[in-house]
Amino acid sequence: MDFTGHGVSAAQRLDVMAPDPAPHGLLPVYVYFHGGGWTSGDKAALTKYCASQAAAGMVVVNVNYRKAPRFHLGHVLQDANAALGWVRHNIERFGGDPLRVVLGGDSAGGQVAALITAATFRPLLARHYDLAPALPAAHLRGLVQHCSVADFSVFFDPGFVLSLNFIRMLIPTGGDAKDRLPLREAAHYMSPIEWLDSRCPPVFITTSERDFFYTANLNLIASLERHGVVVEKMVYGWNSPNTEHTWQQNFRFPESQEVYRRLQSFVSKVAH
User: Fold this and answer.
1) C-alpha dihedral (89, 95, 101, 104), degrees to nearest 10
2) Is 98 helix (H, G, I), strand (E, B) or coil?
3) 205: phi then psi, degrees, rounded to nearest 5
4) Which 3-state string (H, E, C) describes 136-175?
5) Residue 36: helix, strand or coil by DSSP?
6) Beta carbons within 8 Å of 94's beta carbon, 6+ residues apart
């Protein structure tokens, strides 16, 4: 479905999945943003993942968004916010409760979910991206992070596997070059760990030593716990070979199946 109401391309569409048969009463809503380094990926790759969560008793919204390098991070977040606006006004038709929403994503999609969560209670961040948050913070009951790009400081670490060009391509290129933020300041506005504080809803984090963003996720766990945020975590060691970056998408892996069980329990608890 088109979440803008303007008949746009596939980049601004979403899928809704709900249990069949539908239970009595409204169900919690799980809104998911796919990964792909902000440049690739599609909601279609997450269909099985999302369907498995819907079968467990929630309404799942699987979201596409515009991508870099043609578009910058502001466009991505505006699409994410528009999708949440669509959820707020339409999800009851599919049996979902717009007052009980959990956001989630993997890799770059995890960053999108976390940053749009932060924007609901950090006005400075929302203004930076020209956002009027579509959902009140009180309606966001939880946040799910699968191998998320949660801490942009790791991009500046010597020898990190990904280059600083990932940050550069997310910065708007129009206007006068002298008005563009220095790279570290721009990264500050992209980095969820810089904005999620004690107002953040409970968070479920899954990562592995085999994940590019293992350190970023450990940093996020530590930061959230310092702020007193409820954090549930699944952290696999190097001896778990099925846990390469974004392994959660592959239902064949027992590690993924365990993530799904824990995820379903998490959503049930935070969105009761």
Assistant:
1) -110
2) strand
3) -120, 130
4) CHHHEEEEEEECCCCCHHHHHCCCCCCCCHHHHCCCCCCC
5) coil
6) 16, 18, 59
Contact 258, 129 (CB under 8 A): no
CA atoms within 13 A on the CB side of 89: 9
Q: What pLDDT digit, counting tens, does each position of 151-194 carry?
A: 999 999 999 999 999 999 999 876 555 457 899 999 999 999 99
> Strand 59-63 vs strand 27-33: parallel, antiparallel, or unpaired?
parallel
Tell me how far apart the 2 most distant CA atoms of the chain are, in Å.
Answer: 57
d(CA 45, CA 18): 18
244-255 pLDDT tens trace: 999 999 999 999
* Type of residue at 213: F
Q: For the ranges 27-41, 141-155, 172-186, which has the lowest average pLDDT? A: 172-186
| Eight-state DSSP code of residue 43 | G
Token digits of residue 87? 């959820």
